[in-house]
Amino acid sequence: MDKVNLKDLYIEEIEKLLYDINQEKYRAKQIFKWIYKGVCNIDEMTDISKPLREEISQGAFISCPEVLNVQHSSDDTYKYLFGLLDGNAIESVLMKYKYGYSACISTQVGCKMGCAFCASSKCGFVRHLTAGEIIDQVISMQRESGNRISKVVFMGIGEPLDNYENTIKALRLLNNPLGLNIGYRNISVSTSGLVPAILRLAEESLPITLSISLHAPNDRIRNQIMPVNKRYNINELINACKKYTNITRRRISFEYILIDNLNDSEKDAIELAAKVKGMLAHINLIPFNPVSERDFKRSSPDRVKRFLHVLTKKGIQTTVRRELGSEIEAACGQLRLKHEKHKE
Ligand code: SAH
Q1: 214 C-alpha vs ligand 1 centroid, how far in Å?
Q2: The overall pTM is greater than 0.90
Q3: Residue 221: per-residue pLDDT
Q4: What are 275-308's pLDDT values in tens digits?
Q5: Is the Cβ–Cβ distance between 63 and 83 less than 8 Å?
Q6: What percentage of residues in the chain have a pLDDT greater than 90?
Q7: Whose CA is nearest to atom 26 of ligand 1?
Q8: Given the CA of residue 159, which atom of ligand 1 is nearest to it?
Q9: Rounded percentage of the chain residues whose pLDDT exceeds 70
């Protein structure tokens, strides 16, 4: 029988595991706390007796990703390459902000979405990450860097809502006060627009921020760059977002990459403003980060300014995202899978 990874479990599930070996359930909280302190071995749980640690170890273990590489850029951004137990690798980013540290984490090995502008889609889809592997990125970066992480964005490799159950579990685990205690309001989940999953998420009562990768004001342009739009078109997506905000009363963040001469004209801005007018939402403009295989170019600062101006004049709350980590290919859309099989 395969051993269970304690990092994949809620406290209640650890209690059940203890119950099954005739142990008291209060120990589950002790174990849970150790996991989030970053221990990698059951034997490090020193307030649990050695015989009990041995008994637990017979059916369980604690995963710990191997740090295969860390790159550091001058703007205080770190990109980690983590090796998973099966030899796959994922990337995660740690960024320093005025208020503290923020982690950008992956939810899948590879991605199925195939967006034309994104490096992650180049390598295809390999598998979903487990909840434990998702939160491990935060636990490990916190342990390795010695900095408390207070904010998490699910914007690394993969489509979080395509790995729905594990993403929801990871959110609840990150929020647990006995663990990392990261407030839902400090967590963002980004999706390319899986409509049924957005509607399902609305019912979870998780006051996180939902980001939608919109990137186009209409189906003509969105179909060219995001295959998911052929499944759920822009009006279906906007309607799902309206339902989401009605149910959750949480403001949605629309992400919009500006790509030169593709989606950045004044006409595009006007059309975009009309699409989101009146919604509980704001727009986050992202300068396109060049990905070597693609011939898209980033919009000039003048075009960005004009686009922003049109939206603002139309009364749409809009910001331009600050860029971090571009010199180490750690900026939005640049994470990818370079080490598909690192270990033999
Ligand atoms: N699959 C999810 C989350 C991962 S992508 C999603 O699609 O939202 C995180 C964000 O980076 C998305 O908004 C994505 O569209 C954006 N992105 C991808 N490639 C980019 C690039 N080359 N430059 C800037 N942003 C990019």
Answers
A1: 10
A2: yes
A3: 98
A4: 999 999 999 999 888 876 668 999 999 999 999 9
A5: no
A6: 85
A7: 333
A8: 1
A9: 94
Q: Assess whether the C-beta atom of 191 lies below 6 angstroms from ligand 1.
A: yes
Taking only the tens place, the pLDDT of each residue in 101-118 is 999 999 999 999 999 998
- Residue whose Cα lies nearest atom 15 of ligand 1: it is 213
* Active-site choice (15, 64, 91, 329): 91
The residue whose CA has the least distance to atom 1 of ligand 1 is 159
Residue 294 alpha carbon, nearest atom of ligand 1: 22
- Per the CB < 8 A criterion, the answer to whether 88 and 104 are in contact is no
Q: Is 91 a catalytic residue?
A: yes
